[in-house]
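JOB MANIFEST
job_type = single_chain_structure
chain_count = 1
residues = 505
[input]
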Amino acid sequence: MSAGKELIDRRMEKLRSIRAGGYEPYPANYDLTHEIPWILESFSQLETAELEAARRKVRTAGRMVSIRGHGKVSFAHLSQGGGRLQIYVRRDRVGPEEHDLFRLLDIGDFLGVEGELLRTRTGELTVFADSVRLLSKSVRPLPEKWHGLADVEVRYRQRYLDLMANSRVRSVFVRRNRIISFLRRFLEARGFLEVETPMMQVLAGGATARPFKTYHEALGIPLYLRIAPELYLKRLVVGGLDRVFEINRNFRNEGVSTRHNPEFTMLEFYQAYSDYGDLMDLTEEMLGGLVREVCPGLEVEYGSATIDFSSFQRYSMVDAIRQFWPGPQAPSAESLMDSTGLKTLLRDRNLEVPAGSSWDRMLGLLFETVAEKHLIQPTFIYDFPAQLSPLSKRKTDDPRFTERFELFAGGLELANAYSELNDPEEQRQRFREQLIDRERGNDEAHEMDEDYIRALEYGMPPVAGEGIGIDRLAMLLTNSPSIREVILFPHLRPSRRERGSRDEE
């Protein structure tokens, strides 16, 4: 018999004893008068004499995370809501029956306790129990050394253990919640309307990505899980909703890394009568306010870097390549406009240039290779080649580029935005170019969306739109090196147990 199985059997025996004693080990409710965090915040500063004079009675509950006993006297700690409070259980105070019940409890059990709030001789704030009640029996023991659980696989697969064991994990997801709450309030205060768009779509549009595919039996049609809500949100602008946003889940059938999860969360918003320059200004205001809200000040520690959100840098893509060029002589802006020169620059850096690569794609590849890793401070990179931006408006003074920007900080791409293309004929031509790209083997290229073009033919006002990656923003503002640290249930390869092997204890 394995050690894990033996421990479970012992707990099951205790469970039978509890039931035999007439106690329900899984009651339906327990009326609290106070939660543990509130007790700690309200009474931790009171001196022993003040507590004794107050004679404060509390009724609280939590998971038992430690226990030590000395015959008729026991101490334990309950954990609840991110707080941890000691309880003192004495036989002559709770009575022999409840004390016998308490002696059948284990670490991991949920317990309700009622009593007076005092301090022990060591000065620790403690509930001196008048009664105890079992609220849920834990029949599976917590992992060994669960305080500070470090096994990454266990942490991600069994997030419930991670939340129990690592106090930082709870704080990460509390901060993530505050990030989303602030972004929602910020946009609503500026007249944006929150909406919902379909998660299953007939066409996978709004971005260049490989989708997940499903099938609707009743309708008899294939559907795609949303890769972006963009085309639906812009249809709403056509319909007269001038400022809209959605905090949405997207799904992309692509690789997994420290920065990519197949299922991820985005904030996407659209503002009519605006261009990408307006959204740069809005984004600076929004993220500066966000950092002040969730962090102390405007500086954020991320890895070994200190990121200052009091100022944002701005470079065109061409200027960024030249600014961060590693050699003594940066290439001229003119040389970056020539396909042959670009190919030479890429090969000089030992980069493979796929056959048939356009100037647009080579410039994008050179930027990713040369500049991206240097974008630690908040930096807008603007003016992207047109082929890399099939839904954005061309620059009037140089139609090789579009009015698009991406925001980077900490080496992470946080946002993507552009002045939206609202000319239906040009949009149709851009989609045709994407179809040609798809025929050449790019399965992430955009498909033709006739209904979206039809919507544009009714007229869409000038509009700028932006998507902000919530997961990456949470990574940055919680100093988390991996996207899996900020997603409660990240996608992982199946474990041996999930593949049907023997039970893993």
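[summary]
The longest strand covers residues 57-70.
Residues 3-142 form a domain with the OB fold (Dihydrolipoamide Acetyltransferase, E2P) fold (CATH 2.40.50.140).
exit_status = 0
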